[in-house]
Design brief:
Number of domains: 2
Radius of gyration: 22 Å
Largest sheet: 2 strands, antiparallel
Helix content: 55-70%
Number of strands: 4
Structural class: mainly alpha
Distance between the termini: 33 Å
Oligomer: single chain
Low-confidence stretches: 1-6
Mean pLDDT: 85
Length: 330
């Protein structure tokens, strides 16, 4: 832990500190001096980066520069009034460095994960460190979801402002290990999807949806049970569940109809698609795959929007969060 003149930050939780201490102790006992040095250098670099971030002014407080008053409201207005190409230049430096910090911490944890897998005395940390990596990846992905909403001028200003407000709070408290999970409903759904291998079957997704729904909160059911659930929302959810593009699902359903089938096995679907589908298979040992999945689906949606073709224009995550951010209580 270290202290800045503005706010106190904790780079590692007690659990993480203990794990790092044990890794260094075991490596030292084995005489692996270079590995010990690598871990310590990376650990020190994370503290240095966090210390640098802490020196920047609070994103949530008001600041006066010459005769210009900067507030959280002026920041939200600024990032909500421009499209994607201009966004990066309107984000506070503290937020940019904070994102780099999150990636640096993910890489540090991945390094520890590699060490832990190779040393029997540390194998007890295998599951906890996987969870820590996933939490950081999911938090970064949730931020990307909110930024996608802010950047989309077709979404109502009220929803975009709500998303910008949440992002600003995440930027401010990124280094505060005591802050509650960012977008917990998304993280719960991502965890459920990450552990799930789609069965395909009728391609209705009932089995997969049931398994995902057992691990999240009531707001998820409010979203699914709405009378005004759009085709875009249904199609984007199907992409999320099956890990296939809308176009590939159309091909599979067309083949089922032509062959008079009511269901498909996973291996049959892969044969029809030629084992070359747009979204690569998840690597269940790498939680970074969920971030890649979101980016892939987001890019396909933007292409469809520009090209004016059929299929979901937003990701499932964007649609879900737009619904939640439209609720007055939230």
């Amino acid at each position: 832990m270290f202290v800045s003149n503005i706010q106190q930050y904790m780079v590692f939780t007690d659990e993480e500190e203990q794990m790092v201490h044990d890794v260094i102790s075991v490596l030292t006992a084995k005489g692996l001096r270079e590995d010990v040095e690598t871990v310590k250098n990376n650990q020190s670099s994370l503290h240095d980066l966090a210390n640098s971030i802490s020196r920047y002014p609070s994103i949530l407080e008001s600041h006066k520069l010459v005769n210009d008053q900067r507030t959280i409201e002026s920041l939200i207005n600024s990032i909500c009034e421009r499209e994607v190409p201009d966004m990066i230049l309107r984000i506070p430096t503290k937020a940019i460095l904070g994102r780099a910090y999150t990636i640096a911490k993910i890489n540090f944890l991945l390094m520890l994960h590699y060490i832990i897998r190779k040393i029997p005395e540390l194998i007890r940390y295998n599951e906890p460190i996987n969870s820590l990596i996933a939490n950081n990846v999911f938090t970064m992905t949730a931020e990307e979801v909110y930024l996608s909403i802010v950047e989309d001028l077709s979404i109502s200003q009220h929803i975009r402002h709500n998303a910008a407000n949440l992002i600003a709070h995440n930027w401010e408290y990124r280094l505060d290990c005591g802050v509650r999970e960012f977008a917990p409903i998304l993280q719960n759904l991502w965890r459920a999807r990450y552990r799930m291998i789609p069965a395909f079957g009728t391609l209705m997704g009932f089995t997969e949806l049931f398994r995902m729904s057992s691990e999240t909160e009531p707001a998820w059911f409010d979203y699914l049970q709405r009378d005004e659930l759009s085709d875009d929302e249904v199609f984007s959810l199907e992409e999320f569940i099956f890990g296939l593009t809308y176009e590939e699902l159309v091909v599979l359903r067309g083949e089922m109809k032509q062959q008079g089938k009511t269901s498909l096995r996973r291996d049959e679907a892969m044969v029809i698609l030629g084992n070359k589908h747009a979204y690569p298979e998840y690597d269940v040992d790498d939680s970074r795959e969920m971030y890649r999945s979101f980016r892939d689906r987001k890019n396909h949606g933007r292409y469809r929007k520009r090209a004016g073709v059929e299929g979901p224009k937003k990701t499932f995550e964007e649609n879900l969060m737009c619904f939640l951010l439209s609720i007055p209580e939230i």
